[in-house]
Design brief:
Layout lengths: L1 E3 L10 H19 L4 E4 L2 H9 L3 E8 L7 H9 L2 E5 L20
Parallel strand pairs: 1-3, 2-3, 3-4
């Protein structure tokens, strides 16, 4: 499940991380509301295990590295089940340049 954070959220400190937390919580709520169909997954092993039991796995990742305002946020999101991250989306951020943005910050 992609936790999409629009680039506009990265201009206000904490806004991108707050949105990512909120969206991650929504994914958890989806799984909790339908335990007979969905479950959270944090590894490929879990995905295979869930598939064998007829469950749809919901691995979570953040699209746009903007919520990672500091290294502490990596642990924060990892502790909440996020396992993958795209570095940028439509605009450069504090991690890297975006192929769509002509700014070329880094």
């Amino acid at each position: 499940m992609f936790i999409y954070v629009p680039s506009a959220r990265q201009v206000v400190p904490g806004s991108a991380a707050s949105l990512a937390d909120s969206l991650n919580g929504m994914v958890v709520s989806i799984a909790d509301a339908a335990l007979d169909r969905f479950t959270l997954a944090t590894s490929a092993v879990e995905v295979r295990f869930h598939k064998e039991r007829g469950l749809v796995s919901l691995p979570r990742g953040i699209e746009n590295g903007a919520p990672i305002e500091s290294l502490a946020n990596l642990s924060h999101f990892y502790d909440r089940g996020v396992r993958y991250l795209t570095l940028a989306h439509a605009r450069d951020n504090q991690l890297c340049d975006s192929s769509y943005d002509n700014t070329r910050t880094w």
